[in-house]
Amino acid sequence: MTYQPGIPTGSVPLNQDYLNLQANFSQINSQFLIDHVPLTSTSGSPPNGYHTVIHLANQTVDPVASVSAGQIYSKLATIPPGGDSQLFFETPLGGVQQISGHSALANGYAWVSGILIQWGVKATPGASGTITFSAANVAFPNNLFSVQLTLSRANANSGSGVIVIDSGATFDKATAINIREIGWYLDQELLSGKAFIPGTNNILDGGTSQQFRTILRVVVTFPGLTIGLNSQPHGVIVDANFSLIQLYGAATNATAFTGEPIPNGADTITYDATNINITVAAAYTRAWAVMEYIQEL
């Protein structure tokens, strides 16, 4: 059955032309059934005229811009690769944005409102790691706007790290993200914001990395110091990858209104695998020790 334009003609009596009219209305109803709630639906939910799905015929090129309206269409996309079509939006002035396309893998990506967002996970206990978007996922088509790092550790201590971006020929190499001293002194492991000289080459990425090592900080509270040796647990993982950067303390006598930095003269401060150890010749009301260290070779 095909639709017949020009029906009724006006020259054929309706009692003869009504079959052609019925055929045209039947064809209109059949066409409207595609992607729509049927015209014959009486439920009202969803309302008549609503779309059920939308089929978009693939375009080979972007459409001509319409100054009065934006346009949504389907076109073959380069991201993701593989010859799949994606949704695009063209503004009235001709600006084109890709608005769909994703990979749901652990190292994946997604187009969100015209911006390509990529993510990745690298499990590298006690070492550095590399996530290469242009190989594991897709190459950024133009500008890199932002990089964020979320760290996770299996033990109770917080994670820490530094991002180093090496973008080849497309972007400048940035090695200063997060490289600033952070003014928080807390009784848990956290980033100091400082970076140490690059460590040994990482065999996990072919032995070519020279990444700066992250300096961590923790504050250990002493409720008071008695004459002689005083010890408090530091809660830091001290293993073959651990290196001390600096260790210092300060003690206060709240009664005599005196205090001292530590180390000072015969008063010393050291650490072992479990504790911070302070030895003093006089008693103090309270004291703190600050430990800064790296956990990378």
Write a structural description.
With 297 residues, the chain is mainly β. It has 3 domains: 1-52, no CATH class; 56-122, no CATH class; 147-297, no CATH class. It is built from 2 helices and 15 strands. The strands form 4 sheets. It has a 5-stranded antiparallel beta sheet, with no helix packed on it. The longest helix has 19 residues, at 14-32. The chain is rod-shaped and about 120 Å long.
Short summary of the structure?
With 297 residues, this protein is mainly beta.
List the helices and strands and how they pair.
Layout (H helix, E strand, L loop, with lengths): L13 H19 L25 E2 L11 E6 L8 E6 L5 E3 L3 E2 L5 E4 L2 E4 L14 H4 L53 E7 L16 E10 L5 E6 L9 E11 L4 E5 L5 E4 L3 E6 L5 E9 L3
Parallel strand pairs: 1-2
Antiparallel strand pairs: 2-3, 3-4, 5-6, 6-7, 8-9, 9-15, 10-14, 11-12, 11-15, 13-14
